[in-house]
Design goal:
The protein is of the alpha+beta class. It has 13 helices and 15 strands. The two termini are 54 Å apart.
Length: 427
């Protein structure tokens, strides 16, 4: 076969103009692939328009975060990856669009990895990007001869190549780590992004006792001095009981973590106490259940699953554990004395995700044996970097299936350390 000559510059298709790019952008934004995410629509439109305007100063992570996602202009991008996460989602949606409904699009809009500057090119292969510079045969032979006759230059070249290879390996490892964790993280939260309904955050609370000052002082002194007997004469009104009037600091931190995270993703949030939640509300939309022992909805959800919470006793005599349905014998994940009745060095948590067969509604349970476990489970859900290990352990196709994750956290001076995955079950 005789190779054909490339077309002359005068015969090549002209670069896309502004009107053509905007018309193509509008069609892409109206496509089914982008209709499900307003934030992806807003981000892509912002990037394309700024690129057309030549405003490259606005195509920086911090500026994008402030303009599109409501962050402060000086926010810490290393701790808040919203722009990187959504840009990655835009890339996936663009790829899906051009492989489906966008096949007939004459113009293609791409967002290169590691950049927020869109690229416009014709789908027939003509690109606005300049061609790579190619070294001719004579130049290549001259360069080879020069390299061959200079040992010092050759040694330097070996060193340079070694360094470049090492950096490439590091970059590839980092890219793989980020890619897998980002994909798993975004796959988990995708149903919440696609839903127009509010995310129901169902939170636990315990009954709280209120005492008059003299009664409270007497109880305090008895506790401090280890008294086992206390004689008190109570009058009407000395003691009051408020149902669902108390919540642990750890549970509050978990609620704050998830509510803040969901708000940053643009989700509508409906926070309710367990006493305010009906079975109909659980069935209606996307649901996150916090806590276990004081959240009957969470306990009911876990009752038929492989990993579930069990306990015996109450207060200072309570022992709690996670039961593995597929394992007999003594439970591995057990806490004999829970804080504050004793110093607690370990806590365990379960994250359960259940997808309803017909409605595809998602119910997530986030709970620990104690509040420490609940707190770190909430941190796990809302932090992208924890998901790399889960993506490695979970089988292929987990995105459309139910799963449970068992976590462990070490507690130092009543503060939980980062979680560690103990088990993953997918069905």
């Amino acid at each position: 076969m005789i190779p054909t000559k490339p077309p002359a510059a005068s015969q090549q298709r002209p670069e896309p103009n502004r009107q053509q790019v905007i018309e193509s952008l509008n069609r892409i934004l109206r496509s089914p692939t982008f209709q499900g995410s307003k934030r992806c629509q807003d981000l892509l439109q912002f990037l394309v328009l700024k690129r057309l305007e030549g405003d490259f100063d606005s195509l920086k992570e911090r500026v994008i975060g402030a303009a599109i996602f409501g962050r402060k202009i000086d926010y810490d991008t290393s701790n808040d990856a919203i722009v990187r996460v959504k840009a990655n989602e835009v890339r996936k949606r663009l790829a899906a669009c051009y492989s489906e409904t966008g096949k007939s699009e004459p113009l293609r809009i791409d967002l290169p990895v590691g950049s927020y500057v869109p690229v416009f090119r014709w789908q027939d292969g003509t690109s606005e990007q300049p061609p790579l510079e190619v070294v001719g045969q004579a130049g290549a032979a001259s360069a080879f001869q020069n390299w061959k006759t200079k040992p010092q230059a050759r040694r330097k070249s070996f060193i340079a190549v070694g360094l470049a290879l090492g950096l490439a390996i590091l970059f590839l490892g980092r890219w793989i780590y980020v890619r897998f964790s980002t994909d798993a993280f975004e796959s988990f939260w995708a149903p919440f992004d696609r839903s127009d309904e509010s995310v129901l955050l169902c939170i636990p609370a315990r009954e709280r006792w209120f005492f008059d000052a003299p009664v409270a002082e007497a109880l305090k002194n008895a506790s401090l001095h280890g008294k086992t007997r206390l004689d008190l004469v109570l009058s009407p009104g000395n003691v009051a009981l408020v149902p669902f009037g108390e919540m642990s600091v750890q549970n509050f931190r978990a609620i704050l973590q998830l509510a803040t995270f969901l708000a940053r993703r643009g989700a509508k949030i409906d926070v309710r106490l367990v006493s305010e939640v009906s079975a109909e509300a659980i069935r209606k939309g996307q649901v996150i259940l916090l806590g276990a022992y004081h959240n009957p909805w969470a306990m009911e959800l876990s009752s038929g699953l492989r990993y579930r919470f069990e306990s015996v006793g109450q207060g200072s005599s309570e022992t709690t554990w996670i039961r593995d349905r597929d394992s007999s014998g003594e439970p591995k994940w057990k806490v004999s004395k829970v804080w504050p009745y004793a110093s607690q060095e370990l806590d365990y948590a379960i994250i359960s995700r259940t997808i309803m067969p017909v409605s595809r509604q998602v119910v997530v349970s986030v709970a620990g044996l104690n509040g420490f476990g609940t707190q770190v489970a909430a941190e796990f859900l809302s932090a992208e970097h924890y998901w790399n290990e889960f993506a490695r352990l979970a089988p292929k196709g987990w995105e459309e299936r139910n799963f449970q994750i068992v976590l462990e956290t070490r507690i130092v001076r009543e503060l939980p350390n980062p979680p560690r995955i103990l088990a993953v079950h997918v069905w």
